[in-house]
Structures are given as structure tokens and as C-alpha cells.
Amino acid sequence: MKLNIFRLGALVSAKTNLNTSGRLLSLDALRGFDMMWIISGEIVVHAFAKATNVPVCNWMSAQMHHTKWNGFTFYDMIFPLFIFIAGISMPYSFGKQLDNVSESDQKIAKRNIYSSLIKRTLILIICGMVVNGLFKWQGYENTRFASVLGRIALSCFFAAILYLNVNLRSQLIWFAALLLGYWAIMMLVPVPGYGAGVLTPDGNLEAYIDRLLLPGKLHRMVYDPEGILSTIPAIGTALLGVFTGQFLRWKSEKWTITRKSVLLAIAGFTLLVLGLLWDIVFPINKNMWTSSFVLFAGGWSLLLLFVFYFIIEVVGLKKWALPFIWIGTNSILIYMAAHGVVNFESTAIFIFGGLINYTPLLWQPVWLGSSILLIQLLLLYFLYKKKWFLKI
């Protein structure tokens, strides 16, 4: 089975080696690194900081929380990094289906891609609602329809449509238009009772649109961080990945993988500076997914990709990243499992609880969190060795 990084779906077995030609293991590893923190990594960090009370550990623990409103932490980067990675995979996934085929075959291939895109989008939206507790049957008013998986689905869907239908120059124009247009409407369109350009949690236009149009329960009462209007700049986050994927796939004797890695770093620093400059007039804010947030998070995403790409693809050091690859190749599966479908904490207590009880009380949460992570890694290693991957 050819493993498609962007595709997620039915659990199937595979017979081919994962290290197939043209596959970016660094992308799998980066996705796994990103996902590790929200499945159990953060639990270990928080517990270790509490047990040691060492300043650097306390700082790391603080970075494992979202910023309350304006600002940026490491935890704020996890979500846009995942969308960015999904965007990178599109040129690889779709390119395999569209490259070196006739015009008539391309039309057939595109129809198949559109069909798959619609299916994936709907399934991910439903999966996101399941993670939110859809099957608790708490009633319409207590059901949260917006979700992390839903935003991934919608932002990647629209970015894919652009990638499949317009050239790179037009994609760049769309990217700029989405970010500038979002900035303009957020600052210029008045909100009843507040006016225009009010960027408070309840007074901004994105929150007002959520209260007006988003069905069910809002995650933050007066707005939803995965709301309707803020999906527009999230498409820009996916497009940043699409641009990066096209660049990495570009074959040129001049642009070796070493030179490509250097340009990734330069582009990352450039986006960080642009994001900070835009922050002066349009604050970096994950909840509103502001345009400055897209650039700033995109800059950090590129720098992280540079680190993984350089070490794994350029230098050729791969074994250290295997645990991340186990996570990255089944990222949606472990995300859903860790967020309500499977109680890993109960499993860890059942297996390791006796040993944990013999450790000092202050350190027990550390070993419990580590046990949860170990069980998750063992499960993912088993799936990886069996070559079973969740694909939609």
C-alpha cells in the first residue's frame, strides 16, 4: 500500500516498506512530534515541573498552555503546525495522481480527488464532533459542532481546491487576499453594540458571527476558537504548507536538498518578522486566528520543518525519530483515541499502578504520565510494524 500522508481513512494493512522513494520521513516525524504533546507529552511536562519546581521546567509547563488572548506560546503552535503539515502533503499526494498523465486522464483523476476530498472533509467534521462528545446525546444546544478536526478538514479542503485549479502565482494572490481581506473585515465591519475594530473576546466580528450563525454550543461561551469566520485565514495556514510542499517537490540540479533546507530557515525567519510587524496593528491571536498569527505560526512551522528536514533528509539521521514516525503515521487515530475514545489513564493505572504507588507521592503524576505515553507508543509501534494505518 502506498502510504498517503494527507489521506486518513479506513484501517488497512500494507505490504510495502514505509521508506519508499520520494517519501518525506521528516514530515512524518514532525507530525508525530507535533501530535505527541497533545496526546500525553504535556501531562509529563506539567507533572515534572510540579515535582521539581525548577525554573526552566516551570517555563516549559507555562508554554504548554494556550495564551488567554493576544500572544503566543508553544502550545498555540501545535494546531497550525498540523494544518501546515497537511498542506505540505497535498503536492505529494495529488502529484502522484496527476503527474505524467494525459489531459483526459487528469480530468478523471481530478474527479476522483474531488470525490475523496468531499468524503474526507465530511468524515473529519463528524469525527471532530465525536471527539467533542456527539454520542453523549446531550441535546442540540449542548452539542459543539465546531472542532479541531473540522477546521483541519475545511481549511485543507479549500486549500486543495485552490492547488488543483490555479497556478502558483494565483495561489499566492489568493493567500494574500485571504489574509488582507480577513484583516480588513475584522477591523472595518462594525459589530452591533461594540463598533468596528474591537478585538476583545466578545466584541470582535468573528465572535459575533459565531453567536449569530454557528449552531449548537460555543466552546468559549461568546465565541468558538474554531468558528466560522476564522476558518478563512486558516486556509492561509494550509496554503503555506502547499507552497512549501511544491518547493520541496521541485526538482532542480541547482536546488539541492541542502539549499532547500537553508531556504526553509530563511523563509521561516522572514515570516516571523512579518508576523511581528503585523502584530502592531492586528495582534497575534490564535482564538481569532489573525493574519499576523498565520505568519508568525507559519514562521515557527517552517523553522521546525527545517530542523527535521535537515537532520533526517540532509544529514540522514533517522533512527532517533522513529517514535515520532510511529505517532505521525497514525496521527488522527491516536488523536481520537487519546481524546475520549480510549481511556489510556485507566490502562496505565491497571498495568503500572502498583509500581507507581511505591514512588514518592510528588513524582507519581510524572510516572503516570510517562506510563500513558509508553502505552500509546507501544500501541503505535505495533500498528507501524503491522503496517496498519488509519486512512480516510
* Count of DSSP strands: 2
- The assigned structural class equals mainly alpha
> How would you sum up the major sheet?
2 strands, antiparallel
Ends distance: 14 Å
Question: Radius of gyration over alpha carbons?
Answer: 21 Å
Strand order, sheet with most strands: 1-2
Task: Tell me the series of helices and strands, N- to C-terminal.
Answer: EHHHHHHHHHHHHHHE
Q: Helix share of residues?
A: 55-70%
Number of domains: 1
How many helix segments? 14
Oligomeric nature of the chains: single chain
β-strand percent reads: under 5%
Stretches with pLDDT under 50, minimum 5 residues: 1-21
Provide the residue-averaged pLDDT: 90
Shape summary = globular
Describe the protein in words:
- There is one protein chain.
- The chain has 392 residues and is mostly helical.
- It has one domain.
- Helix content is 66%, strand content 2%.
- The protein has 14 helices and 2 strands.
- The chain has helices at 25-52, 55-63, 74-98, 103-131, 148-165, 168-188, 205-213, 231-249, 257-279, 291-315, 322-328, 331-341, 344-356, 364-386; strands at residues 9-13, 388-391.
- Strands 1-2 form a two-stranded antiparallel ribbon.
- Helix 1 packs antiparallel against helix 3 and helix 1 (25-52) runs parallel beside helix 12 (331-341).
- The chain is globular and about 65 Å long.
- The model is unreliable at 1-21 (pLDDT under 50).
